[in-house]
Design a protein that fits this description.
This protein is mainly beta. Helix content is 7%, strand content 47%. A six-stranded mixed sheet has the order 1-14-16-15-11-10, with no helix packed on it.
């Protein structure tokens, strides 16, 4: 591992010059699609900097264009803000990410077990519980616990650093005897004043902590990485983990108030931008191992920016080999907002939706353009190796992105589902296929006109087939044939009441949908789990409805468990009155039937997993073990 000095002297990333277009419409494109695609293409030529002076000048100019009397529009607004068969590819889309085996695993074979429900097989995602089949590792209420699954006992506990964050935001990744615990945090922000970085005495700002924990004995922290910025997401392939965070300039902005007009505040903030040193912009992080502490910044040559962009946020990707440690983070950064992270074994995509903002004089920096024209910018990084990501290409498409499931890479192309003009009664959704052309992601085909007047509620791509659910009053489930990237087409549509917020392949040409039943007027009525036959024209074979309930699965796919061997399906549920439990269903043939419910004392169940013939449910208060077949209780482990 190199020293900080060596890192600062690394050569620049080799980035190709690119000019992106908003995309063209294939034969499946509708009138709505053609209109949306005619919007002016954003300037997206990505530029790398080898000279820190040039980088600082560019960053200052970008910020000066958009800064307003209340700060920057994308983050720092002064003191107030510093603070399955039959389905092509179904086996690879089960959503399981195997946890790498610990050394010596062959000597003690782990029983068959489930893993975190993830988007892409083999690419793990952070969650509050992990298992390798022999032990269960959880993080909850400020503690990491290790449970022996066979003995059903807690074998290790680690008290985590106290953080000021949303309850239940802790996550972890696991590789053998090493775990990375991710702790989003807020603290007193750091600002630049008179070219000196000092603590802002007022509000808090985002901070990310990563703890590398050794699990070979009693859990212990090996090293800690603390970054000034907002944690976005992470992905893991084998022992290699990549963590993405977003930082904003650390500048002491003023704000308009009764004794300071917007004109004066704007002038002062522009001057603050012109004075801000490079240290106020470059993402920084601190690594602590034992008594050794290093404060590091991303080198200038590892920062790139879309030409013409006025973004001031910086997205950084840190790369770690869990076996080697987190001392060398191998950072790579792009000046862009970035919110959604999607990863495969060879690609990492970071995307963000720009809703359209107008820079300018007092009071205009935060106001939307009339009418707003939303677009989604997408950056692809090559992560096929074990080193830092290598920038590959960028693209832009009209519309807004729902979540990572609206992105899918297949045979070297990226499928993207977006909704244009949501919320004004004229919305429509489109699926586009993007192909890499040098350093560009170009639209090579599209199919639009999906759910007119509605917006996307869920998306699932499985092999060459896509499934899109839109909703306003009824739920059209669309099936898409994407075998010809240049001519994607709609092959089926099913209209039913309610909607599916999450879609999951269930084998034999079946698709599970989890969401809400609704009245004909669109009023939600409670949990609905549907089983669809999608071998031809989609049809619903069976449904289970539980009135006045909802499930975390609707907005977090990690909360969903499907065990193909038995058809066991488990989702956490919450009643409209506030009670919580886990609902276990059985999917067999053409039917979805209720198996039963599991409860934890005074706590909401968050996750479930299978090890051998045991179903484990996880909450903040403990773990409960039940038989997979009939839910007969086997153990309760209190935390």
């Amino acid at each position: 591992m190199g020293s900080p000095g060596r890192r600062l002297s690394w050569s620049a990333l080799t980035l190709s010059v690119l000019v992106l277009v908003a995309g063209c419409s294939g034969e499946g494109g509708s009138k709505t699609e053609a209109t949306a695609s005619s919007a002016p293409a954003p300037p997206m030529r990505l530029v790398a900097y080898t000279d820190c002076t040039e980088l600082l000048s560019r960053l200052r100019k970008s910020a000066e264009k958009v800064v307003g009397p209340y700060g920057l529009p994308d983050g720092n607004q002064g003191r107030a803000a510093l603070a399955g068969r039959g389905l092509p590819g179904a086996e690879s889309a089960r959503g399981d990410a195997a946890v790498p085996e610990a050394p010596g695993a062959a000597a003690k074979q782990a029983p068959e077990h489930s893993s975190t429900n993830v988007h892409e097989a083999g690419v793990d995602e952070p969650d509050l519980v992990k298992t390798d089949g022999r032990r269960i590792v959880t993080v909850a209420r400020g503690r990491l616990r290790v449970v022996d699954a066979a003995d059903r006992k807690v074998t290790g506990t680690l008290t985590l650093p106290e953080v000021n964050s949303q309850v239940g935001s802790e996550n972890l990744l696991l590789a053998g005897d090493r775990a990375i615990v991710i702790l989003p945090d807020h603290r007193l922000g750091m600002i630049q004043r008179d070219n000196v970085e000092v603590a802002d005495p007022a509000p808090t700002g985002p901070r990310m902590r990563l703890l590398l924990v050794d699990l070979s004995g009693e859990p212990r922290v090996v090293s800690t990485l603390t970054a000034d910025g907002e944690y976005l997401d992470a992905r893991q392939t084998g022992p290699t983990a990549r963590v993405v965070f977003r930082s904003t300039p650390r500048i002491d902005f003023t704000q308009a108030r009764p004794d300071r007009s917007e004109v004066d505040a704007l002038a002062e903030n522009r001057q603050a931008v012109r004075r801000a040193p490079l240290e106020a912009w470059l993402p920084s992080y601190e690594v602590t191992t034992g008594t050794n502490r290093q404060r590091l910044r991303v080198p200038c040559e590892r920062v790139s920016q879309p030409a013409g962009s006025t973004d001031t946020s910086i997205i950084s990707v840190l790369t770690f080999d869990l076996g080697a440690g987190i001392n060398d983070a191998d950072p790579v950064s792009v000046v862009t907002k970035g919110r959604t992270v999607y990863g495969t074994g060879s690609s990492l995509y970071v995307s963000d939706t720009d809703y359209g903002t107008a820079p300018g004089g007092p009071g205009t920096a935060m106001k939307p353009v009339e009418p707003p024209v939303a677009r989604t910018d997408i950056h692809r990084f090559d992560v096929s190796g074990t080193g830092p990501p290598r920038y590959a290409a960028s693209g832009s498409v009209p519309g807004t992105l729902l979540n990572q499931y609206a992105l899918s890479e297949y045979e070297g192309r990226l499928r993207v589902a977006t909704t244009s003009d949501p919320g004004n009664g004229r919305s429509s959704s489109t699926v586009r296929v993007l192909a890499q052309n040098g350093a560009r992601l170009d639209v090579v085909g599209s199919v639009g006109g999906l759910g007119k007047g509605e917006r996307i509620y869920s998306v699932r791509f499985i092999g060459p087939t896509g499934y899109v659910v839109t909703f306003r009053q009824v739920d059209p489930l669309y099936t898409l044939d994407l075998r010809d990237p240049a001519r994607p087409k709609v092959t089926g549509e099913l209209k039913i009441t309610g909607y599916s917020a999450y879609l999951h392949p269930a084998g034999d040409g079946r698709l599970l949908g989890v969401g809400q039943e609704a009245s004909g007027e669109g009023r939600t009525l409670g949990l609905q789990v549907s089983l669809f036959d999608v071998t031809g024209q989609p049809k619903r074979l069976s449904r289970f409805h539980l009135p006045d309930t909802s499930t975390e699965t609707e907005f977090d796919a990690h909360a969903f468990l499907y065990w193909p061997r038995t058809g066991l399906t488990v989702v956490p549920i919450t009643t409209y009155q506030g009670g919580g439990s886990a609902l276990a269903l059985r999917v067999t043939g053409d039917r979805v039937t209720r198996l039963g419910t599991i409860e934890h004392p005074r706590s909401q169940i968050r996750r479930s997993l299978v090890i051998g013939d045991t179903l484990w449910t996880v909450s903040d208060t403990g773990l409960r073990a039940n038989a997979v077949t009939d839910l007969d209780e086997r153990a309760w482990i209190r935390f």
